[in-house]
Amino acid sequence: MNNLKEHLQQLEESLLKPEIRSSQQELQKLLAEQFFEYGSSGKVLYKNEDIGVEGIGIVNMKIIDFDIHPLSDEIVLATYRVFNVDSKQYSLRSSIWKLINKRWQMVFHQGTKIN
């Protein structure tokens, strides 16, 4: 389980990297076809409708308190906090990862600002 936790944390952290966030091709690998997100901004984002060739925008964020909660052998809920270095704001995050064709892909993500 520790290996899975480390692997999923690495995948989550990769989604914060500029070279991944700005690459539609890299995002296609990490996000499942049915992916959608409830963003901390209040916006809903759908993979096939809202991710253009420019990606999803550059952020300066750090992951804190990462943990996983297996829902089955092939589905895992990841929970953590994010610190936005630029805005000095924390948010709660949750993602659902699914093992699809022997590769973990994110199917859902939610960000909730902490006041």
Kindly describe this structure:
The chain is of the alpha+beta class and 115 residues long. The chain has four helices and six strands, in the order αααββαββββ. The protein has helices spanning 2-14, 18-21, 24-30, 47-50; strands at 31-38, 44-46, 61-70, 75-84, 89-100, 103-113. A six-stranded mixed sheet has the order 2-1-6-5-4-3. A hairpin with a 2-residue loop joins β5 (89-100) and β6 (103-113). It starts with a helix and ends with a strand. The mean pLDDT is 89.
Features:
115 residues, six-stranded mixed beta sheet, 6 strands, globular
Which whole number gives the mean pLDDT?
89
Cα distance spanning the termini: 33 Å
Largest sheet: 6 strands, mixed
Would you identify the regions where 5 or more consecutive residues have pLDDT less than 50? Answer: none
Strand content: over 45%
Order of helices and strands: HHHEEHEEEE
Work out the number of β strands.
6
Principal-axes geometry comes out as globular
Radius of gyration: 13 Å
Number of helices: 4
Q: Summarize the amount of helix as a percent range.
A: 10-25%
Structural class: alpha+beta
Annotate the secondary structure layout.
Blueprint: H1 2-14, H2 18-21, H3 24-30, E1 31-38, E2 44-46, H4 47-50, E3 61-70, E4 75-84, E5 89-100, E6 103-113
Short description:
With 115 residues, this protein is of the alpha+beta class. It has helices at residues 2-14, 18-21, 24-30, 47-50, and strands spanning 31-38, 44-46, 61-70, 75-84, 89-100, 103-113. Strands 2-1-6-5-4-3 form a 6-stranded mixed sheet.
